[in-house]
Request: fold
Amino acid sequence: MARVTFNNQNRYFFQFINSRVENYFIEQNLKKTGNIQLYVKTVILISTAVSLYLLLLFGGLNPVAGIACCFLMGIIQAGIGFNVMHDANHGSFSERKWLNNLMGLTANMMGVNAWIWKQKHNIAHHTYTNIDGVDDDIAKSPFLRMCHSQKWFKLHKFQHIYCVPLYAFSSLLMFSTDFTKYFKKRVLVTQFRKMESSQHFIFWASKLLYLFFYIGLPAYVLGIGPAILGFFCMHAALGVMLALVFQLAHIVEDMHFISKQHVDLTIANEWAVHQVQTTADFATHNQLISWYTGGLNFQVEHHLFPKISHVHYPAIHVFVKEACEKFSIRFNSFPTVNDALRSHFRFLKQLGVTSTQ
Reply:
């Protein structure tokens, strides 16, 4: 495949930040992985999800309460994805590899294969952020146009309106597109690493178990109609929450995008500078947002230090801003969630009204 390379010969920017981050952990005598704060949150989120599941099956809820619980379950599952699955699959949940692997399987609980998610997210997205043709997270054509280099269609005039209903299907699409990636053995143009026999087994077993626990068993206990309705309500909430949190980090105004054609591409900046230019923070002073999103509102910090648990991002935030000021690099940040949301929808509208590159 055609390669994408960064100018990493002079990594002054990242070296400046990294030295301060390393000193911080040494001086504070801290581990870079999760702490009691993360583990308590994990117990709360997973126990709530299990309780809601059992309540829906055996609680005898009326239809309105049942639908409300399905939406709530989707919101809780998104919280597990942000806090538990995300850290674990980056290897930052715990120092113990087996525990990271176990907690990473919470992705499979949401219908997404953890191993494939690592190829898609950890490699394709984190390495080639906002590079059209390589970053799978912005490859939503023809339904959504996410940067100016992508082909324009007339339906994009309304994408800022229909995007939210479309986001409601995003988690279901992740369930199905896993199969496409599995058989093609790649994410867009990025080839998979070798998939071991155990991962093949987990892929098929977890997909079947997911269908059993979320459709088969509920259909047996409650009936096929309520089971299907509840399943889609859960995924609507899950999909919207997942999509919006990740979109606010990259698909907003003033983001940097690069078009990758079928030729080798050399990016002038070092990798770390590219990450800052293609990523945005939002609502970093809102502790509730930080708690629920697993620190993904500190997205710049996460992209620079993906193997450090999100519980440390508020401290790292100070060092990143200091480095951006020193090297005159624009630091993208929105004060509130509403500010980031408005920027996201304005950007989609801008991309939809014209086909100009």
User: Anything to note?
Assistant: The mean pLDDT is 94. The radius of gyration is 20 Å.
